[in-house]
Amino acid sequence: MAMQNDLRSSEREALLFHSEGRPGKIEIIASKPMATQRDLSLAYSPGVAVPVRAIAEDPALAYEYTIKGNLVAVITNGTAILGLGNLGALASKPVMEGKAVLFKRFADVDAIDLELDTEDPDAFINSVALMEPSFGGINLEDIKAPECFIIEQALRERMNIPVFHDDQHGTAVIMAAGLINALHLTGRAMKDVKMVVNGAGAAAIACTALAKSIGIPGDQVILCDSKGVIYRGRTDGINQWKSAHAAETDARTLADAMRGADVFLGLSVEGAVSAEMVESMAPRPIIFALANPNPEILPETVKAIRPDAIIATGRSDYANQINNVLGFPYIFRGALDVRATTVNEEMKVAAAHAIAELARQRVPEEVAAAYGGKGSTFGPDYIIPAPFDPRLIETVPIAVARAAMASGVARRPITDETAYRSQLRARLNPTTAVLASAYEEARSHPKRLIFTEAEEETVLRAAIAFREEGYGVPVLIGHADRVREGLDRLGCDAAEFEIHNARVSPLIPEMVARLYTRLQRKGFLHRDCLRLVNQDRNVFGALLLDMGHGDAMITGTTRHFRQSLDQVRLVLDPAEGHLPFGVHVLVGRSSTVFVADTTVNERPTASELADIAQQTATIARRMGHAPRVAFLSYSNFGNPPGEWLETSREAVILLDGRGVDFEFEGEMSPDVALNSTLKRHYPFSRLTGPANVLIMPGLQSANISAKLLKELGSGAVLGPFLVGMEKPVQIAAMTSTASDLLTMAVLAGAGVVC
Ligand SMILES: NC(=O)C1=CN([C@@H]2O[C@H](COP(=O)(O)OP(=O)(O)OC[C@H]3O[C@@H](n4cnc5c(N)ncnc54)[C@H](OP(=O)(O)O)[C@@H]3O)[C@@H](O)[C@H]2O)C=CC1
Ligand SMILES: CC(=O)C(=O)O
Ligand SMILES: [Mg+2]
């Protein structure tokens, strides 16, 4: 695109993220095999005629024989895209694809985006109403007020599936959850609260209505729009939705309204609130500045004037993110699961209370592990759960489903809540929450990350993102001029980066001395060490790490794994009592499998296999999983017999003796390890479920399997991660993309995999 050179690197990354691989963020995949002639004749003509006739006779069977019951349409006309304004239907597509991805990621709801090219409410309403047969629910998005009210109302009346305008009700539910908790923390009763809402559009009107319906007295709420206070009798710029909330007041400006107010709720535009306005509020004010992407006032400005304030924004980079992403996936999950005809007030209030209560609960241990070990405790900086909190999927849909049943809109009530809860839990993979929390952890404890191959554009892009996204300081190794040129090409100011040139660095004498002390009795002369330091970026990088100039190191994109490892090992040792080895992490939709040793030890001994199992189990646990270890083979418990089975068997016996605190079993084939049906043939097996840690008998099978899965598999494959070194070093695959490198850097920095 023509403007590429004017973009900041984070903006360029955002464009690359959307264009790399398949353009966009979603694809459709078949949920049934389509491999044989028989599959085709069942999926299509003639087999497909059977469900067609069945549905024609009984429409409810569409939920049994098609995707309808799990499919939501995200529909917009692009008239109020986030806070960016009316940029049209086509331009809104990235946001709508994004919402579809969030539906899938957080609640396993399949969603498809539809951008309608019209600003005429009737045309919009007619188009959407005709789509009822296709979908289980309709999520309206980013349609401006007041048309959004007309559209939603008409569609709710005409359609017999849930119709939900996310910017109105999704936002209101999350705002209400945050408000309930902020009032609780400041010891206020709803009936005493004076509230000011700035903005009188889609989000603001719905939030005001919900705030009143949960107990804030109507005559204590003042609404403002771009022209000031909406007071009784005002005629300028008014519509029926605004006048329904017109206040009996002398206040005419936002500043008048805010004097003495307890709560400020902003759903307007960046910078609408001044420091003076905040100063004039009641003690312990509650300030929700929710305009996106930039809030009405920045949290740091509020804190400087009113340290006693509770502040929330719509963004993920401050504490207390109040954003509808916490609501719409789970509200639809619950509504779809009971086949609700609508999302009513009771369901919204139930969701708000469930979310609020989650933040007040003590974070259980397994969830704390998924948060990267850092607990979140209810308080002014934690009034609302983070979007990746794995408890949301178990609690919010249940609350919504219960409310739907109690209010008579559920067509298929839940009969066994315990079974429903486990079904919900199984929809998500805890690893994804851990990855998200590792990124948070990295932001709150920034590290110095050594990137040894900084002349490579992929590496530089990862290093730039590492810095710009706040994970820490990239320490770049390379010819300074070439690295600077690369930074310049990518639109960065090279002066802001730390670059080390291995030929001229002032650290060289100390490095050579250290290396010589270490290698002099291993056949290396002093001048050999000087040459290594000058010419080998892995040796130089590892020495920087060893001397404390960085917290972790990442390399591998220009050299084979073994060569990089041998160079690093000239400088660094394994951690005491640890065996260095490699782990690939296969992240599927609802499960994760750890495979080891995929990179280092060609024919591990029984004792080495046992060590690898123990260390991999620790990583699995760190990533939120109870480890179930299988020692893999072509054979199952002695059948067929073979020459090479002994090491795996001995490893099992060794672990028996070590009294470890995780499940393990072997030797067994991968299908027996992973498939519960086959496992029934071995009732004595000690694994209580499918294995999630696969210990391979040797490097051949391990490395081949990992690479096959990476090339042919459908889920994400992370790694190889190098485990068991005295300092965190990661050797990436030569095929790594910038985001692969960033993930490795962040996980290495956060100490999740090391
Ligand atoms: N955090 C979250 O989850 C969400 C945040 N939002 C944010 O809320 C904002 C509004 O979105 P939405 O309701 O969908 O948009 P709408 O277009 O429906 O409404 C915008 C409203 O903002 C008002 N406004 C504009 N400038 C000012 C100003 N200086 N002072 C007071 N009011 C002003 C407009 O006033 P007027 O009527 O006079 O034109 C209008 O009422 C956006 O920034 C959006 O990103 C929205 C949804 C969710
Ligand atoms: C978050 C959201 O939906 C918005 O800002 O429009
Ligand atoms: Mg929106």
TrEMBL record:
In the N-terminal section; belongs to the malic enzymes family. In the C-terminal section; belongs to the phosphate acetyltransferase and butyryltransferase family. NADP(+) binds at I81, L82, G83, L84, G85, N86, L87, G88. GO terms for molecular function: acyltransferase activity; malate dehydrogenase (decarboxylating) (NADP+) activity; metal ion binding; NAD binding. Keywords: Metal-binding, Multifunctional enzyme, NADP, Oxidoreductase. It holds the Pfam family Malic_M. Residues 168-405 form the Malic enzyme NAD-binding domain. A divalent metal cation binds at E141, D142, D167, N292. One of its GO terms (biological process) is malate metabolic process. The keyword rRNA-binding does not apply. PANTHER family: NADP-DEPENDENT MALIC ENZYME (PTHR43237:SF4). This is NADP-dependent malic enzyme. Transmembrane segments: none annotated. It comes from the Bacteria. Its EC number is 1.1.1.40. Its cofactor is Mg(2+); Mn(2+). The active site is at K99 (proton acceptor). Residues 23-156 form the Malic enzyme N-terminal domain.
